[in-house]
């Protein structure tokens, strides 16, 4: 029986829920293109979505951090709304190619939501890395205990020294080398291949927009961040003392606008009850981001 009403529903959102929703969305909206960007440590497909064939390319991603799975749910709810509007003849993404990685860290998200099942190949190590606790709800890293948003070659050595983590754990271990993890390599390879005009990585929490990196960001970045802040009610923040993130590397590598968007407020994982408010604030923010990406005086490819 065909679904009616909204496909993407607010619920704990892991790779199984993402796969179910993507299958249903493709049936309803055949224009939604779905392909693998790579695979996780455990072999889970890293879903890559494309909407539109415009000349300017925008990238959005979510759930670099496992306990921030609510970002994947928010991005998928917004994606369904966008597809609905396009089908009705209203297209906020007109002139754009929109590329989405809705769940960068599916292994970690599944772990944070469901814990370690019996027979898991990393089960013993995960319990050791989690200090013997079977509660993985606060886990940020991938399944090998590496923080995927500390994996990028943008002053990675400095970030590793700053973190002071010598081995795998729930958070803040940058790995043995930049891009050692397949999920981070996939995000970097996609970005190199498509050479995006603008990127935004969705995280939680703090209701802040980070837009700069070591003075390497383009001149338009501050104004863009302030416009995103006015649209959403979030704060545009000039961040210091942080390296090796996806946004940092993108700015360093391409000298184009990149943003980290910290959704919601509280302690991770944010409660599902915040989802409606998160989407309500994210919606105008992303629509403004799409407008900025289309502007003729925006960053040149």
From TrEMBL:
One of its GO terms (molecular function) is metallocarboxypeptidase activity. Residues 157-182 are annotated as: Disordered. InterPro entries: ENP1_M14_CPD, Peptidase_M14. PANTHER family: PROTEASE FAMILY M14 CARBOXYPEPTIDASE A,B, SLL0236 PROTEIN. The keyword ATP-binding does not apply. Its EC number is 3.4.19.11. Keywords: Hydrolase, Metalloprotease, Protease, Zinc. GO terms for biological process: proteolysis. SUPFAM superfamilies: Zn-dependent exopeptidases. The active site is at residue 262. Gene3D superfamilies: Zn peptidases. This is Gamma-D-glutamyl-L-diamino acid endopeptidase I. It is an enzyme of class 3 (hydrolase). Its cofactor is Zn(2+). GO terms for cellular component: extracellular space. Belongs to the peptidase M14 family. It comes from Paenibacillus pasadenensis. Residues 11-293 form the Peptidase M14 domain.
